[in-house]
Specification:
The chain is of the alpha/beta class. The protein has 13 helices and 15 strands. Strands 1, 2, 3, 4, 7, 8, 9, 10 and 11 form a nine-stranded mixed beta sheet that branches. Helix 1 crosses helix 2 and helix 2 runs parallel beside helix 4. The longest helix has 15 residues. The protein is globular and about 55 Å long.
């Protein structure tokens, strides 16, 4: 059977509607039995980037997750729901995240367990382009199969986050900062994400595109109704179709561009075999997608004598809204480059050392961080 992408209309998070649509997705892809054996332990690798309630569309939806877990449990699989959010990877943090994101509710709906194993393992990955060894949460090896449960969102660093980047959550919280710091170039980081996804090797990816996020994603954007569920055994194909739906060319999304270059994904939507509804019916032409260009598109690092000018007038940078900021220091604690300093309980970024990963923006609990794009960069981005 060829690799297929199932795309089906689904207008809301009604539990029974979700179960019916997800069951149809499995049927479109050849049936559950093609991927999961009865009695196997299945990890639903959800996206719980930070403590955000479901209506913010920043994390995996509990009804969506619960419906998928329920189908698998009824089939005869043991289901575990898990992720490694940003910050310290500890049972206390997980309990808090599960509560706010309502994954405890999802577990009850789906007769599933929540993961509290916070041990680390090192995976040898000789085929990796960037990573030959990957530090991951041990919970990903305490299961027989992994299913990625992602949401279609924009991202201020990688432009879009979906099935592939969702696997970055297999990396323990604080270790993520090391990967960001060691791969500051977005294209290099994209290959890092691809290596991590290939190592995790999800058997299926289910993308919640019922309500996505646009704008300053992955946590500070706005919910946007799309009305679809996308699923496939190939996470790169899922993301390619998602990019088309948000009216964005794959070549402008680093993860997809590099996936195409590495032969993991075609560069033409016509080469992806789809089943179900027509993806064109879901395209949103005015979906708010971040502009992610920086000096990298001019050929890399500027000459020494121009660094100050470029840093001030061309490079994008984190911008702090001190009216919203509560001085919690999460941005400074989670900064991979350690370039944010707290002064009088307010963050200050040393932009010359900033690697533009925007972890500060992603993990701010008050959405007090945005990405400032200077006028010259905005003009250049349109060229």
């Amino acid at each position: 059977m060829n690799i297929l992408v199932s795309i089906l209309k689904c207008d809301n998070y009604d539990f029974e509607l979700l179960k019916d649509t997800i069951k149809k997705s499995f049927e479109n892809l050849g049936g559950i039995e093609r991927y999961i054996n009865k009695g196997e332990t299945v990890l639903l690798k959800v996206n719980l980037v930070m403590k955000k309630p479901p209506e913010m569309a920043a994390t995996s939806n509990p009804e969506f997750t619960g419906a998928l877990a329920s189908i698998l449990s009824e089939y005869g699989a043991k289901v575990i729901i898990g992720d490694s959010p940003g910050g310290p990877f500890s049972p206390m943090l997980l309990k808090s995240i599960y509560n706010v994101c309502e994954m405890d509710k999802a577990a009850k709906m789906g007769n599933a367990e929540l993961n509290f194993n916070t041990e680390h393992i090192v995976c040898e990955f000789p085929d990796g382009k960037v990573l030959k060894k990957i530090t991951a949460g041990a919970y990903i090896k305490n299961c027989d199969k992994i299913i990625s449960v992602c949401r279609l969102k924009t991202h201020c660093m990688t432009k879009m986050t979906g099935a592939v980047k969702n696997m970055f959550g297999t990396i323990p919280g604080t270790t993520k900062a090391e990967y960001h710091f060691n791969c500051p170039d977005v294209n290099n980081f994209a290959d890092c994400l691809i290596d991590i996804c290939l190592n995790a090797n999800p058997v299926l990816s289910f993308m919640d595109a019922i309500v996505g996020m646009e704008g300053e994603g992955p946590t500070a954007g706005k919910p946007r109704k799309i009305g679809a569920i996308i699923a496939s055994e190939n996470p790169f194909h899922v993301d390619f179709v998602a990019a088309k739906i948000i009216n964005t060319e794959a070549e402008t999304i680093p993860v997809l561009k590099n996936s195409i270059d590495r032969g993991l994904c075609p560069n033409n939507i016509e080469e992806i075999e789809m089943i179900g509804d027509n993806y064109k019916d879901f395209i949103i032409t005015d979906y708010d997608v971040p502009k992610t260009k920086s000096m990298h598109f001019l050929g890399g690092k500027p000459p020494k004598f121009l660094e100050g000018f470029v840093d001030r007038h061309i490079q994008p940078r984190p911008d702090f809204d001190y009216k919203k900021c509560i001085g919690c220091g999460d941005c400074a604690r989670n900064c991979p480059a350690k370039t944010i300093e707290m002064k009088n309980h307010k963050p200050f970024v040393h932009t010359s050392k900033c690697i533009r990963c925007y972890c500060c923006q992603e993990l701010c609990p008050k959405e007090a961080v945005s990405v400032y794009r200077p006028l010259i960069l905005r003009i250049m981005s349109k060229l």
